[in-house]
Design brief:
This protein is mainly α and 370 residues long. It has three domains: 69 residues, Dna Ligase, domain 1 (2-Layer Sandwich); 82 residues, no CATH class; 133 residues, no CATH class. The strands form three sheets. It has a two-stranded antiparallel sheet. Helix 2 crosses helix 3 and helix 10 crosses helix 13.
Length: 370
């Protein structure tokens, strides 16, 4: 008992030797930091595991999704979420990761509905029925034909297109085109996107032409031939109009040979362009039409392309076949079988053969010259 008396005194206890220990405070501080970090981690984990907030978009509403050339699946996923087709872009991407067919979703305008299951979106977008029919412009259309077909497909008035085409400042044309769009409304397949204007549609065609021109090296190779790009496009349009693709390069050579010889081209296709006709048999009256496009009358090339040539025809104009041909006759209009020669007498014989075979004794045959 006597041993405990010193500890029962009423006097204050002596201070602890560890009260101001820096080690103790450091341990306490680290512990508090650890608790805070743990709390943050728990909060973030819970948030990540929690279901995403449901979309407020009413399910079943029809929406159009536009997929542009070059769009990635991530871009598509974001478009689908923004439109309310799926509630989560990440959910669509997760489905796409499990379905390799998703990589086959191409550019176009798709009709979908809001509130779809991500996996079903892939099925629907791969169904041709969900994709709007594109505008298809074949090679060789005159500019008035391009406008008519495009107007019918898009519902945009002809007058709107004509206004844009008559106003060079509204088009992004190459400098060498000198404000002329004829020949540059490139033949291709175009998606019809609601809300686009005539200016937008023409811009898409000119942009597509720019891609083709870059691919064939139009400006560089035209310079190498000693001609400007617009002359190449004129030649390409004549090639496109006159024969089948397998003879494109030969006709290009005929054109250059005749120009070098100072001969008139005498192409039926240019007269058809001047008269806005499309016939294989031209009368003498038609051949004498007063027009800068009548190559039976004028010297050299017509002032503009007579149609929108495709890339193969442009390539032919840049790389003509080697040969001394000056004349050609399409001896079979059904198959566009064409014969080439440098002999005028041979040309006349083929022309007579054609006339007799097709009962066109009163009409000149296709080919050059008369």
């Amino acid at each position: 008992m006597s041993q405990m008396l010193p500890f029962l005194t009423q006097d204050p206890l002596p201070p602890s030797k560890n009260r101001r220990s820096p080690i103790r405070w450091t341990v306490v501080a680290l512990g508090l930091i650890a608790l805070v970090l743990a709390g943050v981690w728990v909060a973030m984990t819970v948030r990540g595991l929690a279901p995403e907030e449901a979309s407020s978009v009413t399910a079943g509403q029809t929406v159009l999704i536009v997929v542009e050339t070059g769009d990635s699946l991530s871009t598509l996923a974001q478009s689908l979420e923004t439109a309310g087709v799926v509630t989560s872009a990440s959910a669509f991407l997760a489905s796409a990761d499990l379905d390799e067919r998703a990589t086959r979703i191409g550019p176009g305008v798709y009709t979908l509905t809001t509130g779809m299951d991500p996996a079903s979106v892939i099925d629907v977008m791969l169904d041709p029925a969900s994709r709007a029919a594109p505008l298809v412009l074949p090679e060789g259309l005159r500019i008035d034909e391009t406008v008519r077909i495009t107007s019918e497909a898009t519902g945009i008035a002809n007058a709107d297109f004509e206004k844009v085409l008559s106003t060079p400042s509204e088009m992004s044309l190459p400098d060498w085109a000198d404000g002329r769009a004829e020949g540059l409304l490139f033949p291709a397949s175009y998606d019809i996107i609601p809300g686009r204007t005539a200016q937008d549609v023409i811009a898409a065609m000119l942009n597509r032409f720019g891609i083709a021109a870059d691919e064939v090296g139009l400006e560089r190779r035209a310079k190498k031939l000693g001609r400007d790009p617009y002359e190449i496009m004129i030649v390409a349009s004549l090639v496109q109009a006159e024969v089948a693709p397998e003879d494109f390069r030969k006709v290009a050579r005929v054109i250059y040979n005749r120009l070098d010889e100072g001969m008139k081209l005498q192409f039926d296709s240019t007269v058809n362009y001047a008269l806005k006709t499309d016939t294989f048999f031209l009368t003498d009256d038609m051949l004498s039409v007063d027009s800068p496009y009548n190559t039976f009358v004028i010297d050299g090339l017509p002032p503009t392309p007579i149609n929108s040539p495709g890339q193969e025809a442009i390539e032919a104009a840049l790389d003509p076949a080697k040969g001394d041909w000056l004349y050609f006759v399409t001896v079979d209009p059904a198959t566009l079988t064409t014969k080439f020669t440098s002999d005028y007498e041979q040309f006349l014989a083929w022309k007579q053969e054609f006339r007799e075979g097709y009962g066109a004794t009163a009409a000149p045959s296709p080919g050059a010259p008369q």
